[in-house]
């Protein structure tokens, strides 16, 4: 349909192909994450092919260029772009419409995108600065030159090395099918970068080409080898095709019967011969090291180097070698697509055999009948699948439980019991680990013992100065030898086995009911807090206060020793304390009593102890603090007194007298 739409637009008195191309491209690229959708990429590939055929690629470049520029963070809000385009990713991967290194299927689309990125690389001066750094600093790697260029140009996103166009064209040339019309031009684009001589741009004498400086690492050296092998394969392909009979071009088979009178397009053997020569020239250009050294006089090269084209490449002349492009095949495939759409359109309006009335497909009043008649051609759709209700993995919090202290406390106690038991199990496992380690440390020194032994050595005598020996000397040696205690060794083996088993149990993830309990308790607290913030009512506040002290009651040595449980309980207490306890006059006394009763809760609850909210009751509270001070809990008292205004402390100190 799109091809037919474009074809109609080229006729006289129509809007022209540019408007149609822009319309369809804008419609497709406005979709979220469109570059990851294969149907959209398929349509974009055909649009790019048509734009190339009509020499209207600029209109596609313009639309893609602007979206690509926005994706890189130019002239737009970064946070808004991140949510809309989802391209700003962590690290240094530069966004691109062609994800990965290359695409073997949507070659026309890749050609358009890479040309658009080439324009951006020139406009941003990225390639010029990178090449300049490589020329000026001979020891620089491409990665170092890229980082230096990014710092100099102040680019919003650090470009990644693999996104440089010299690598993009190389990878695209490797995966493009051998018979694709664009393959010669893709290789031309690569050699325009590979054989570029940037010296004169920086006031330096004309030196060698810059391309080999980008291929110094082992991975890039292997890439060059793959490219040479690929060029040989393509040259062999076209050589075989030039010797064969004239064969239909790829994609030209399957012509409808109604178009049987139109002759199918046949690939020219002469074009295959020219392509063989061109790809053999490419092989010579890729292999010749002298181009990179700068000591080659181009006019002196042999004829098979195609010195005329080589000079154009080294002079950075961007004119495409259209004589190697099979434009007849492109035009034929375009017309074939339009013909297929026209035939499908006519068939869709044909009268079904079971209808007795002829439907006029030009009459808009019969649109409904035409739709129904077309639907009758297809099979009856299958009914929808039966939906089976699924039990939620975590029970849903009912709104009624948020208003009932009894129900809320019962719900949270069920969850906290499981979490507390998990902490006790972890604490018990920790104690067992400590006991086993201690037993290992006590037992290991007993594994080997020294026993006094005696042995007799016969020391040979060879004589000296012609004197003979009377025989070997017999020497008795006493020493302490090391002996292994097998019983202790077996005991150590059992202990190590128990340690491994204990560690394996500790490394297991928590059971599903523990996870459900944590999520359920968190959902209950979150729902309660949200309800109170939405409408602060005394009923919801009472439930929140009850939940706060319920969670506090579950804090124990075991829950504090187990990091996951300690973190969960601390988070629950902080949330409930900030919303329901802090600044609440009626709960100040109860918080203090809880702290005085359990000293380890002081650091946990002191942020929610706000005595200034209850000045009338502060005298009684202070007397309890002073009494607690006599029990050698000065650190706790100091933390509590820091919550009180200075004038209140002085007043009460005078009231209590110098003794206190």
TrEMBL record:
Gene Ontology CC entries for this record: cytoplasm
Pfam families from the UniProt entry: TPR_Epg5, TPR_Epg5_2
One GO term of the biological process aspect: autophagosome maturation
InterPro entries, per the entry: Autophagy-related_EPG5, TPR_Epg5, TPR_Epg5_mid
Family assignment from sequence similarity: Belongs to the EPG5 family.
Top-level lineage group: Eukaryota
Keywords in alphabetical order: Autophagy
Epg5-like central TPR repeats domain boundaries: 584-649
Species of origin: Equus asinus asinus
Domain Epg5-like TPR: 121-326
Protein name in UniProt: Ectopic P-granules autophagy protein 5 homolog
